[in-house]
Amino acid sequence: MSHPTTVAKTTDQGATESRSDSAQQSGERERREPSSIELKGLHKRFGKHTVALDDVDLTIEAGEFFTLLGPSGCGKTTLLRMLAGLEEPDAGHVCIGGQDVTDIPPHKRSVNTVFQSYALFPHLSVRDNLAFGLRMRGDSKKEQRRKVDEVAEFIQLGSLVDRPVDQLSGGQRQRIALARALICEPNVLLLDEPLSALDAGLRGQLQVELQRIQKRLGMTFVFVTHDQDEAMVMSDRIAVLDGGIIQQVGPPNEVYEHPRNAFVARFMGHDNLFAIHASGDDWVDTELGRLHIDPAEQREEQDGWLLVRPETLELNAEVPENYNQLQGKVMERLYRGSRVEYRLEVAGVTMMATASNLGQRLLNVGDQVTVSVCPDDLVRVAS
Amino acid sequence: MVESSRMASRGRAVVGESRHLLFSVAPGATWIVVFLVLPSLYLMAVAFMTNGPYGLPQMPLTLNSFEQLAGFGFLGWSPGNLYTLLRSLWQTFLATVLVVIVAYPIAYYITTCRIKWRAIMLLLVVVPSWTNQVIRTFGWMNLLAPGTPLSDLAQWLGFIPPNMGLYPSNFAVTLGLVYNFLPFMVLPLYAAFEKLDTAQVQAAQDLYASPLRAFWHAVFPQTLPGLLAGTVLVAIPAFGMYVIPELLGGGKGMMLGNLVANQFAGGSNWPLGAAGAILMLIATFIGLFAMRRIGKRLGGGEEVVI
């Protein structure tokens, strides 16, 4: 290794690099400990004007399913590639498992990646694709065969193993790509939008499967996606990125229910954001008029946004006295089967409301409606 | 009724289609038959005829010219023609390998440039071949002749004896071949590099392949179709090359193309020339077949190799 400044070799890498060692290892190999990840002051610029990452600090716990969520160009893929070693930061440090790996090239990092395009080797069979990492780090032929069979069973590849790569469907390729990365038992598995090319049904199925695999292996997963539903379904924690800056980090329910700013709120799919003109201890003045809020939502700043989640609204319901009540009119009805979405006009402003479809009479376009919402369900969001 | 009229119209369509086919294919087919198939058959016939006065072919049929080609003459066996064949094969092999070594980095480098520069650089690669081959080869004669800086340098380094030039020599022929065929390798390699899937390279690195192994396992296989196509484009014409060995090779640099040409041009022995041409044809077919097998085995795709 040509970088004397960095810690020469982690114990794991020592084991993978000396061929005689791994050849002698018989049968069971110790399961690797998952690694935590620490990013300090990461900065990356492409060209003169594009800032991909702006002073990113982030800690990912060992064994966590962590998702980097954001629109395209937000820096999430750049961040992932830095963990893999495929991109060098202009400034800052990447630590994996307590070791500074900033200057360690990708082939010496005990990290494996599932690529968006799968990046399978078309000239190799599925079996040789799976064994590639093992072969490169010098496992014996016998070991390679054993592990390929093991992983094939684990991911339920079945007869796929003996098929040429070009005869596989998208879903099958995806599984092979996952298996090819998992087989090396990395300390951290990186997944770069691995499900984005699949159709919705298959995607849902693989989301559940991926999450199950992660829990079973206890491996640290870092997952990149632009799909907030996918992120919420799978992750232990989510980091929302925009413009190379981490906007919010937290568990899915926290990010969804208490977005820190308007960008996060909008990106998590919230439409009902209303500008706040003035606020007091337990009230805010908005486009909708004065609304009561939980005193805990009190902020120093006067302005910002009020988030009203469509599913917290009650329509024409008997409600306690402390609820906020507004008069509105149904402008549009979207029937979704399990739920019905209404576009309402309240105080001259458009507001979305969602009702579970429990067999009650549906409202019609043009109906007058009383909208009620509990003060505890209203959330203040910074600009 | 409706059925039968539909049948009739379909029949008309088929007739129309075949007539259309006839008109569109006929000119090309006629051309190929008249200028390729018939002359080739004639050439084959000539190869089996007897050498007459002024080198013109005569009856009866004989295997005489093939015996001569194999080196059996009035004075017993001589290895001259065998040497010429081996020299042709060696020069072809050497030139192709050198062309690959030179073209590979060039093709890669061009793909790393900005798009507007790429067209210009490709143009620079191709432009020299717009000049007549004979003129370019004369250029090399002037560059390599005794007393030129290159020859002086070679003398100073001790590669050649004093007062000699780099031309005429086998070295000059190799150089001429490499120079002449470089564009035919750069272009297909460039095409292969341009559609290189870099994700595969990154996947290889991610899976513990060092840069060198990543190149071998992820870059090289992807460029193999271009490499094989380029090899066909370089090796086949190089094997049959006439001008370059004629001008740069001198007496000891002769290749099969010169052997064949001499039999016809000097009016010395048409049947022997025809036999030589057939030998070249067979050697070329063997080469193509081998390339095809290699392409298949390495997964380069046989579609690129004719």
What does this structure look like?
The complex is a heterodimer of chains A (383) and B (306). Chain A has 383 residues and is of the alpha+beta class. In chain A, strands 6-7-8-3-9-10 form a 6-stranded mixed β-sheet, with helices on both faces. In chain A, strands 13-12-11-14-20 form a 5-stranded antiparallel β-sheet. In chain A, strands 15-19-16-17-18 form a 5-stranded antiparallel β-sheet, with no helix packed on it. The two termini of chain A are 48 Å apart. Chain B is mainly α. Chain B has a two-stranded antiparallel ribbon. In chain B, strand 1 and strand 2 form a beta hairpin. At the A-B interface, strand 6 and helix 4 of A face helix 8 and helix 9 of B.
List keywords for this structure.
heterodimer, A: 383 residues, alpha+beta, Rossmann fold, OB fold (Dihydrolipoamide Acetyltransferase, E2P), 2 domains, six-stranded mixed beta sheet, five-stranded antiparallel beta sheet, disordered N terminus, B: 306 residues, mainly alpha, MetI-like fold, two-stranded antiparallel ribbon, two-stranded antiparallel sheet, 12 helices, 3% strand, globular
Short structural summary:
By secondary structure, chain A is of the alpha+beta class.
| CATH architect. name of the largest domain in chain B | Orthogonal Bundle
List unreliable stretches of 5+ residues of chain B.
Answer: 301-306
Give the N-to-C terminal Cα separation of chain B.
Answer: 50 Å
Query: What is the SS-derived class of chain A?
Result: alpha+beta
What kind of sheet is the major sheet of chain A? 6 strands, mixed
Total discrete domains of chain B: 2
Counting DSSP E segments of at least 2 residues, the number of strands of chain A comes to 20
Gyration radius from CA atoms of chain A, angstroms: 25 Å
**What global shape of chain A is seen?**
elongated
Gross morphology of chain B: globular
CATH 4th-level superfamily of the largest domain in chain B: MetI-like
The CATH class designation of the largest domain in chain A is: Alpha Beta
CATH superfamily of the largest domain in chain A: P-loop containing nucleotide triphosphate hydrolases
Query: Taking Cα atoms only, what radius of gyration of chain B do you get, to the nearest Å?
Result: 25 Å
Any idea how many domains of chain A? Answer: 2
**Beta-strand segment tally of chain B:** 4
Chain pair forming the biggest interface: A-B, 26 and 21 residues
Biggest pleated sheet of chain B: 2 strands, antiparallel
Strand order of the largest sheet of chain A: 6-7-8-3-9-10
